Each structure stands twice: as C-alpha cells, then as structure tokens.
Amino acid sequence: ARGVTVVQGLGQFTSSNQIAVTADDGKVTKVGFESAIIAAGSQATKFPGLDEKTANDPRVMDSTGALALEDIPKRMLVIGGGIIGLEMGTVYDAMGTKVSVVEFMDGLVTGCDRDLVRPLQKRMSKRFESIMLSTKVAKMEAKKDGIHVSFEGDNAPEGVEVYDRVLVSIGRRPNGKNIGAENAGVAVDDRGFIAVDKQMRTNVPHIFAIGDIVGQPMLAHKATHEGKVAAEVIAGHKTEFVASVIPSVAYTDPEIAWVGVTETEAKEKGMDIDKASFPWAASGRAISIARTEGATKLIFDKKTHRLIGAGIVGINAGELLAEAVLAIEMGADAHDLGLTIHAHPTLSETVCFAAELKE
Q1: What does pLDDT average to in each consecutive run of 10 residues of the chain (359 residues)?
Q2: Which ranges carry the Pyridine nucleotide-disulphide oxidoreductase dimerisation domain (predicted)?
Q3: Is the entire prediction scored with pTM above 0.85?
Q4: N or C: which end of the chain has fewer CB within 10 A?
Q5: Which residues are 32's β-sheet partners?
Q6: What is the largest distance, in Å, between two alpha-carbon atoms of the chain?
C-alpha cells in the first residue's frame, strides 16, 4: 500500500549506490539507491575456546536460540550476568527451569548502581539454583547426557556440572564488517562499528547508519529514534539526534530501570550531587500488591537542583522511569517533581515522594 518493496536475504554493498541481496536459495537481487540507511545490527559474541563439536551443539545457544526453544530445559546455565542473560534466566525460571548464572565480575548488571541491583540479586538468589559471581567457565564440553561444565573462581562448585542447555550471554558485536561497507567507501572501525554524525550520516554523505552498528548503548529504542532522524534528514528536514539521555531497562523480576547520571558515575567523576531515595516499603500500592522490595532513587545537581539521573528497581520499573526521562529532557528540578500531584495509591508517586525528600 505504501509502495515498499521488501527483498529478503543477506545484503552487501557492491558500490556506493548499489547493494546485492543473496537469498537463501542463492538467488541474487541487485538494488540501486540514492540514499541508504544501514541498520544491520549486531550478533551475539561467541564463547571462546570451544571445540567444534561443542560450539556447534544446539544445546549451547545465544539469546536468539533461547527464544526459539521448543521444550523447557530442566537445568540451564547462563554465562554472563548482564541484562540479556538475566532476562532470559527470569523467563525460564518462571517456566520451571533450574537456572544457574556464572559471572566473571563481582556483581550482576555491572553498569547499574549496586543499591538498585541488590533487590534483584536477593530475589534471584532465592529463585535460581545458583549465582556464581567472581567465577568463570574453565571448560565446557558437549556430551550425550548434557553440556558438561567446570568452573574456576571464588564461587566455583567442585567437579563438573551437567546442564540441559547453556545460554552464552557475554555481549554483542556489530555487523559492520559483514556488509561489504568497503565497496561503498563507508568507514568501519576495527570492532565493526560505523561512525556517524548527529544526522546519522556516515563518511559517505548519502549513506546513513543507525542502531547497534553505530555504537553503545545497543538498545532498540535508541535505534528507533536514530532511524526517525535519518529518515527525516533524507526527506529534506533539518533535524538531528539531540536526546539528552537514553533510558535502560532490565526486564527481570523485579525490573531495574535507570537513566542519566548514575550515583556510581557521579562519584567517579567527582560531581556535586544530591541523592534522594524512597523505599517502596513505604508505598501503599507496593504494600497492597506485596512487592515492597523496590526503591526509587533520584540524582540532582546540587547547584541547580535539576534532575540529572534516576534509578528504579521494582515491578514495572521500566514504565515508571518515563517520567524521570521526560523530567531530565525538560530540565525539571526537585520542586517541579515534588509539586506535581500524582494519583494515589500508585507506584508512580514514589517519584514525587523521592523528590519531596530532596526538598
């Protein structure tokens, strides 16, 4: 209806004005263009050092494979205590799988403040079979009865553990080197990222790039916004990517959501801040739904009193964060948030209560 032609397959540049798309059956379709947007994304980082048999065993999977399982494993190991691994662990735990997590660092979700991670880690410690921090996989081998794994580190179990499935979640790498970018003259760095300006232009003016392939954070909502910017620029509008902050959410149970300056970052940079935190144990709504483990934390610039960061842990934290994101973009201060009447009883009023504590 909108005159869009969809060509499925692997696309690679043949020149700065043409790509060749190879379908699964080997058929090649050439597509010419005046402008192009590269949105080739990223792929899961593979676990290093595996023998060919283990590396190709379908029981050793990435997050894409974990979303396509046709059965529910009895026992699963998640390698990596970041957002994706914990999200998938949460899903399979809810379906009855015994989930274990191994993380090389000394904490989960390392980019987030520890006080926000603590309620999640406490709940997961009760539900998951084990959480092995400061520990790494020493050896992994696919055998008939399962994936045999041995560990080393501070919390490594003795001997060999056997799992039905192993989810490798140790990061993602951009696909910049897989699209023939050099044929179009598009610059790609050693890691596979493509540099762009605020209009999402690459070094080739009529070729744009968005999403994971242009850099961190690798988040869908960032990519969507970048895509809108690129499309508007191609359409002739004078626009650019000017968002002050990009929110992050871990869709775990409880959820963790944060945006802007974290408390940890502020301390490392020596920033002069005020912090206000409201415990959900004092929230009527949280009490009524028996989910009082959460907390809402706001970070303010001490001089201007403007909100510069926020973090929420608790049920539906990702939904609650939007108010803080808007507040930062609008330059709101503690009074703006504290004097805004929030419906009662709601979890959203914890933002107001935290701001009142600052006042």
Answers
A1: 91 97 95 97 93 94 92 96 96 97 96 96 96 97 96 95 97 95 96 97 98 96 98 97 96 97 96 97 97 98 97 98 98 96 97 92
A2: 246-351
A3: yes
A4: N
A5: 18
A6: 66
